[in-house]
Amino acid sequence: MADPSVVYSSVFVVDGKTSASLDPQKRRTGMAQTLLFVLLTMVLLGILIEGYFIFQLWTRNSTALAKPPFFLQEKDTDENEIKSIQAEWDQKKPKAHVTGKSGKLDCKEGKMFWESVNGDAFTHAIDYKDGSLVIKTEGYYFIYSKIFNGQMDCKTSAKGTFKHSVYKSTQWFPGDLELMSSKRYHCRNDKEDMLDISFLGGIYHLKEGDQIFVNEKIIRLQSTSQNFFGAFLI
Q1: Which residues form a coiled coil (predicted)?
Q2: CA 138 to chain centre
Q3: Which domains does the chain have, with CATH numbers?
């Protein structure tokens, strides 16, 4: 029989089969879930950042497209001022228009001579000399000429050739260079008189000092102010 005055300590029984650590399979599963969560978070964050930059870029482009060029902005200049500047520049461009002399046929050895002052004729930054237009500014020019050939009696006149040409004389090349020409044969009709018009036009590069002129080989040239010759810088 135990003595009641003696105190005995508690005795604990430890099961040796119980492990203090977690199951390795569960640990791997938990780590995989954590890693997957981190990856998904990073992907979503990347999408949000990319969307933000795309939105900023779209906003900037939309603003740039909606905003007019600086030279059209009201604070710099208005539309009327731009038109005024353009008109002033066009007025300064070299140009010339010479016409035939009414009642007087002025043609020597095939080279045409023109009225350069009166009527519709004028010259600006291009000189007129002895039937030629003398270029003072290098560039690309539109050159044109119209010749009116009329009142030819095909019943009595001999058949011949009509040739209307524009030539260039330059210090860079000996002789005259034919730029463009129109050639026809007469008579095309033996039953009635003929009225004919020849027009030439083209763009050519001209240098300072170059001279351009019209040469004609015509059976019968009608003397009229409707004949003309000109050029302008484009």
Answers
A1: none
A2: 20
A3: 95-233 (2.60.120.40)
